[in-house]
Write a structure and sequence with these properties.
Elements lengths: L4 H7 L8 E4 L3 E8 L4 E8 L4 H14 L10 E5 L6 E5 L9 H13 L5 E2 L8 E3 L5 E3 L6 E2 L6 E3 L11 H6 L1 E3 H17 L14 H10 L9 H6 L2 H13 L10 H18 L7 H7 L13
Antiparallel strand pairs: 1-2, 2-3, 3-5, 4-5, 6-9, 7-8, 10-11
Helix pairs in contact: 3-5, 3-9, 5-8, 8-9
């Protein structure tokens, strides 16, 4: 759907600052209402006009126009009149929430169930959104790359958020599906600890993933796990901790495939659902039922 600049300006009150719902390195996202249809939308506006931003804009349109999966954010349209690229998406609230199983399902779909596999390349908390039914919507495909079925990976310029970035990819520039697996593992650790991967440093200077794995090997997760997870959790939490550690192994070939990770999380969820007799509205039940829980915010590292 091609949307006019005039309609987007009306939808956002001329991109008023009060309509901003997110801001990142590549652009700003505004909440708006398309007057002709009364649809609530999220409008992504690049910050500056440079070839890299235009390339990412084209890349995101191409990828999202060819895939359809309920855990991936829906592209409604774009605007070709503006000085900077503009994309219009379905509006998804609660962009800091996570549900690990559905995120794994979205990544499995990209890696295994499209005609040409897609590596997302920028898995991080701000790109995992939830709708009003708490259903995951994976977003931001500007950095994503197709990978031929007969290839293990592709060599490309390193891109991604520090803290989530696969160290092998960071060093060598070789992007593989296992790069997404590493980033997903960091997401699991973020859920379990409520710490920010981008800014976290332990007293020894370790990044979040490295510190988590070190404490796991020392049987000392109490030092880093979120206290509520510690209070309410049982064997399922340990299972997810072990899975997260597998995802963030330094060597990519030692990490599991997303399909295996998805199935493991689904089994953890099913096991808890079968054994739990806790009321549905009990927060502790929700934490274990989803394997990692629902995070309403993360703590600053001190």
């Amino acid at each position: 759907m091609i949307i006019t600049l005039e309609e987007l300006e009306k939808a956002t009150n001329n991109f008023d600052k009060s309509r901003e719902i997110g801001c990142g390195a590549h652009g700003t996202v505004y909440k708006g209402i398309i007057l002709s249809s009364q649809d609530v939308v999220a409008i992504k506006k690049s910050k500056i006009v440079v070839q890299k931003e235009i390339d990412d804009f084209i890349n995101e349109v191409v990828i999202l126009s060819q895939i359809n999966q309920h855990n991936i954010v829906k592209l409604i349209g774009c605007c070709l009149e503006a000085e900077v690229p503009l994309l219009v998406f379905e509006f998804i609230s609660n962009d800091r929430l996570r549900i690990a199983v559905e995120t794994a399902m979205a990544l499995t779909y990209l890696h295994s169930f499209v005609s040409t596999p897609i590596i997302h390349r920028d898995i991080k908390s701000h790109n995992i959104l939830l709708d009003s039914n708490l259903s995951v919507k994976l977003s931001d495909f500007g950095a994503s790359r197709y990978i031929p079925i007969d290839q293990e990976g592709i060599h490309t310029t390193v891109q991604g958020a520090l803290g989530y970035l696969d160290p092998m990819y960071h060093i060598r520039g070789n992007l593989t599906k296992k790069s997404d697996v590493y980033s997903f593992g960091v997401l699991l650790i973020e859920l379990l600890t409520r710490k920010k991967p981008v800014s976290y440093r332990s007293s020894q200077g370790l990044a979040l993933a490295n510190h988590f794995v070190t404490l796991l090997s020392e049987n000392n997760l109490v030092e880093i796990l979120d206290p509520q997870v510690m209070r309410e959790g049982d064997g399922e939490v340990i299972d997810v901790c072990l899975l997260a550690a597998t995802c963030v192994k330094p060597i990519g070939v030692e990490r599991a495939a997303m399909r295996h990770i998805e199935m493991t999380l689904e089994n953890i969820q099913a096991s808890k659902d079968f054994s739990s007799d806790t009321a549905d509205d009990d927060i502790s039940s929700e934490i274990i039922k989803h394997g990692v829980g629902i995070d309403l915010g993360v703590e600053e590292n001190t």
